[in-house]
Amino acid sequence: MLRALLTGVTAGLIALAGSASAETLRFSNWLPTSHPVVKDVMLPWKAAVEKATEGRVSIQILDAPLGPPPAHYDLAANGIADITFGAQAYTPGRFKTSMLAELPFLGDSSEAISIAYWQVFKERLEAAGEYAGVKVLGVFTHGPGEVFTKGRDLSSLDGIAGAKLRIGGGMANDVATALGAVPVQSPSSKAYELISGGVADGILFPFESVTFFRLDGLVDQGFVVPGGLYNTSFFFVMNRRTWDRLSEADKAAIDSVSGEALARLAGEAWDAADAAGRDALEGKVQLHVATEEQLGTLHQMLDPVIESKLDEIAATGVDAKAAMDDMKARIAAETR
To answer: What CATH number should be reported for the domain whose range is 146-230+276-335?
Structure first.
């Protein structure tokens, strides 16, 4: 009887010790739960972390964000949240190296671009020191961004000139300006309201976002550029103090499902969402694919933007031209 009692007490103490050492990390997210980044990236990554750490680390994706989207990097850096997701472009001028992944004409696959981006980030960009206060768990991009409008003829580049286009900031702003459009900066959630109300004529978006934000019944034409007009860069980051208090085993476990694995997961999810989005536009939106002549004109208009961004990246101490060449080579290798 005594032995059974002692055995039960010992088992209880072991269970309590195990639960006391477990870490529950709070993840602040501002996207709707139905968004592909939540259901096809965050949730699978959460499950992968919990499996890799054998339950020693669990992740709680909060029901409501702890601040607006532009605040999410600082929410992690300051320890208000343990982990956050965000877009570097939401804080203009702060993350110059991320522009490398947002350049025009990089490629047609989010997966290829995201994997190449992570590899170049680790080997060339991270040393610029732009991510103070956090452990960078991953960086990736959405699929190629294109132009979509209501009531404008996009068979010619003239249809873009003068158009008021909603943009989210970053490279999209510079691309819209270089094409002669008028950028209207606003959250993506306001896109339907802006276009339906005539405040904007259209939007720069990947295919996924056109259908996710219910614009497929609103816009009527699209202009598609091989390689894309831009991409948007995103991050997953963890508060540095939170990271440092984890065991070496748990750090290694989290790293094993983050970084390149996270870039691949996100890229695959976005490519699938883009493909579904493009299929959903069939018969609803007239798509014009840029001709060789139009591509030549686009390069004349956008190559100066690329050079300007490379200069900004170089100001961080990174060999920007070498980084771009490396990025393109890795994208090509992933695409083959």
So the answer is: 3.40.190.170
Listed in sequence order, the residues at least 6 apart from 101 whose beta carbon sits closer than 8 Å to its beta carbon are 113, 117, 139, 141, 231, 233, 327
Domain ranges of the chain: 2-90+111-141+233-273, 146-230+276-335
Alpha-carbon distance of 224 to 206, in angstroms, equals 10
Query: Reduced to 3 states, what is the DSSP secondary structure of residue 202?
Result: strand
Distance CA 77, CA 15 (A): 33
What's the average model confidence in pLDDT over 254-271? 98
Q: Are 89 and 171 in contact (CB under 8 A)?
A: yes
pTM score:
0.91
Question: 2-90+111-141+233-273, superfamily in CATH?
Answer: Bacterial extracellular solute-binding protein, family 7 (3.40.190.170)
- The confidence band for 68, taking pLDDT boundaries of 50, 70 and 90, is very high
pLDDT of residue 21: 59
Yes or no: say if 167 and 184 are a contact pair by the CB < 8 Å rule.
yes
Tens digits of residue pLDDT in 217-262:
899 999 999 999 999 999 999 999 999 999 999 999 999 999 999 9
